[in-house]
Amino acid sequence: MSHVGAAAVIQGSYLVTAFLFIMGLKRMSSPVTARSGIVWAGAGMVVATLATFFFPEMHNYPLMLAAMVIGGAIAWISGRRVAMTAMPQMIALYNGMGGGAAASIAAIELYRGGEATLSGAALAVVGGIIGAVSFSGSLIAFSKLQGLIQRSLRFTGQQVVNLLIAAATLVAGVLIVAQVDATASVVTALFVLALVLGITMTLPIGGADMPVVISLYNALTGLAVAFEGFVLGNAAMIIAGTVVGSAGTLLTQLMAKAMNRSLGNVLFSGFGETAAAGTATVTGSLKPIEAQDAGVMLAFAQSVIVVPGYGMAVAQAQHKIWELCQLLIDRGVRVRFAIHPVAGRMPGHMNVLLAEAGVPYDLIADLDEINAEFENADVALIIGANDVVNPVARTDRGSPIYGMPILNADKARNVIVIKRGQGAGFSGIENALFYLDNTRMLYGDAQSMGSALIAAVKSV
User: Fold this and answer.
1) For residue 364, what are the β-bridge partners?
2) pLDDT (tens digit, 9 = 90+) per residue, 54-91?
3) Which of 48, 49, 50 lies closest to 15, judged by CA?
């Protein structure tokens, strides 16, 4: 094929890719069409990948095919085997791989040197820094979610240390771009510093901030890919990176808003300090309830609102909970699911679990849609949720979650909390909801308690 014909095929493929990416993202905005949106976007990636083979200067076909087969096999096997509870870790890992790939492209271009333009070198440096930060930061996020890193590392002057590392990284980048010193040692120092910055930024982050962290690194990966697309003159990378970066940025802003924290606060000051900050002492006592009594309460209720949290994910109890809700619906009980934007360990975590269990989308409502209904609910059934239903967010100015919009579960006539133990949640904050007069604690694994509640409802 001639160079003109190859160029026409490539540009046409990129146009199709852009259309498929944008349509895929649009369809992902609704849970009803999200699955097809993923297929559309995947088809766009296939088209963009195939277009690569038409570049006239491309000769490493065996190496390309081997990388595609190995990477595809790993992704296929891990994608099929990973448990739904481990989905946040998988997302964090994939974010990191994208950032690492962008950083690798930048490293190749910078080590190669040559007659790069000022703008090209600047884009390579910026994309490399962002990609490296996203890579190492995502790996730390993965390790925290996987339980490989149990504690958040904090020390006095941490922000100053991070600032110094960031400044040193920028200095190295400026030296390279200005051609003052673009030697291999300076390029190496640039990437080492960027990798260290990603680690030091992410280590102090507590579990309560993980949804924001994951969406933030998703945005950074997209930006890094877009920058490297400009460096290579690759329209598909520019389109994919821009779409992912903009979507990730918007999602990060939504997550920060859901936690009542500005994006600047998340990025530069309050990163992960929720677990370390103190809060007022909670008074009262925990009042346990047996599954049989809780089942009777649910069976004779007229309205039940279910609030799922990470405890449901850990126990993989979504199927049992939906079976319980189906029994209640058959008895004429009005059942709805209330989802907080930051419930779980990644954005949309609970929605994914409920969709897997087959819960109809019209029964699932977000915070703004359902909060007013709690006052008329006979029972609020809390399954492993903590901070997102903690009423101190409204009352205790000393609490790290003060001002965060929460689900008004405490305003229901009765509250049943399924919880494995009496400890605080992942963020380390004691939940005042558990001590209220209208709250009863149903201790146990969410799946086993779901089975016990099903048996109790059937016996009524």
Assistant:
1) 337
2) 887 777 888 889 988 998 899 889 888 887 677 788 88
3) 48
List Cα–Cα distances, 216 to 137, 144, 163, 347, 449, in angstroms. Answer: 10, 16, 19, 11, 35
Q: Which helix (H) or strand (E) holds 447?
A: helix 446-459
Alpha-carbon distance of 457 to 331, in angstroms, equals 10
**Lookup result for tokens 């995502």:** 138
pLDDT value of residue 198:
93
Amino acid identity of residue 247, one-letter, is A
Active site residue 387: yes
Residues 182, 113 contacting (CB under 8 angstroms): yes
What interhelical angle do 210-232 and 87-112 show, nearest 10? 30
State the Cα angle at 63 between 102 and 190, rounded to 5°: 30
**How do strand 364-366 and strand 379-383 relate by DSSP bridges?**
unpaired
Distances 114 to 22, 103, 124, 229 between C-alpha atoms, Å: 36, 18, 13, 18
Q: Where are the alpha helices (DSSP H) in 331-395?
A: 349-357, 367-370, 392-395
- Per-residue pLDDT at 274: 43
- Tens-digit pLDDT profile for residues 30-54: 777 888 999 999 999 899 888 888 8
* Sign of the CA dihedral with 266 first, then 268, 271, and 277 last: negative
Compute the radius of gyration of the chain from its Cα atoms: 25
Question: What is the reported pLDDT for 423?
Answer: 58
Q: CA-CA distance, 8 to 109, in Å (whole number)?
A: 26
Tokens of 4: 């003109």
Is residue 101 within 8 A of residue 198, CB to CB? The reply is no
Angle at 243 between CA 228 and CA 47, to 5 degrees: 75
Catalytic choice (209, 378, 387, 396): 387
Task: Please choose, from the candidates 330, 313, 292, the residue with its C-alpha nearest in 3D space to the C-alpha of residue 453.
Answer: 292
How does DSSP assign 285-328, residue by residue? Answer: ---B--HHHHHHHHHT-SEEEEEE-HHHHHHT-HHHHHHHHHHH
Low-confidence ranges of the chain (pLDDT < 70): 1-3, 84, 114-116, 152, 206-208, 262-283, 422-428
**Residue 168 neighbours by CB distance under 10 Å:** 17
Contact 215, 349 (CB under 8 A): no
| Full-model pTM | 0.80
3-state SS, residue 200:
helix
> Which residue has 């405490």 as its token pair?
410
